[in-house]
Amino acid sequence: MSLFSLFRQHDVLTRNIEESERRLKDIKQMKKEGPITNNDVLRSEMQLTNDRLSLTETENSIALVSQQLDILPGINENCLLLPDTALLYRSIALEKYDDYVAQACMNDPGILLLRKQTEVAQNDVRLAKAEYLPNISLYAANTLARPISRTMADMYNNNWNIGLSVSYPLSSLDKNNHKTKES
């Protein structure tokens, strides 16, 4: 925004310098004819000098702001940025104030962070409540082995094991109550 206003100021000062030069030319012409004093000529020259000085300051400010903006994305610092003026001529449909406030709340990084922290806290509560549930595990195994036998026959024993294990620690009733409330 600063860069845009500086370019606008540059345009205004350029027009002011053109007008001051035209005025100075007219005043010098009128001085030759007689009705204008030397003070009027000096005043016009001072105004022109002030306008040129202001233009130089504005150009330096444009270069400085452009350099600061170049540093942020890592562009060459000598690159002069020009603002896009297409936004000025495009009509923008205004929405209700409440819509803008709701949109700002939805996109605010602080609020987004708080939402994520709330989700993490809710997951912590679910994890703490999960400690109340019993631990259930299902297992299966296959063992192919040669049994110990007194004969020299080549025999193999194939065992299949399938099981379900359920465990419920009774101490979790006391300990998890505090963890759940804390979460």
Automatic annotation (TrEMBL):
The keyword Protease does not apply. InterPro entries: TolC-like. GO terms for cellular component: cell outer membrane; efflux pump complex. Keywords: Cell outer membrane, Membrane, Transmembrane, Transmembrane beta strand. GO terms for molecular function: efflux transmembrane transporter activity; porin activity. It is found in: Cell outer membrane. Its main location: membrane. It comes from the Bacteria. PANTHER family: OUTER MEMBRANE PROTEIN TOLC, TO APRF-PUTATIVE OUTER MEMBRANE EFFLUX PROTEIN OR SECRETED ALKALINE PHOSPHATASE-RELATED. This is Outer membrane efflux protein. It comes from Phocaeicola coprocola DSM 17136. The lineage of its organism: Bacteria, Pseudomonadati, Bacteroidota, Bacteroidia, Bacteroidales.
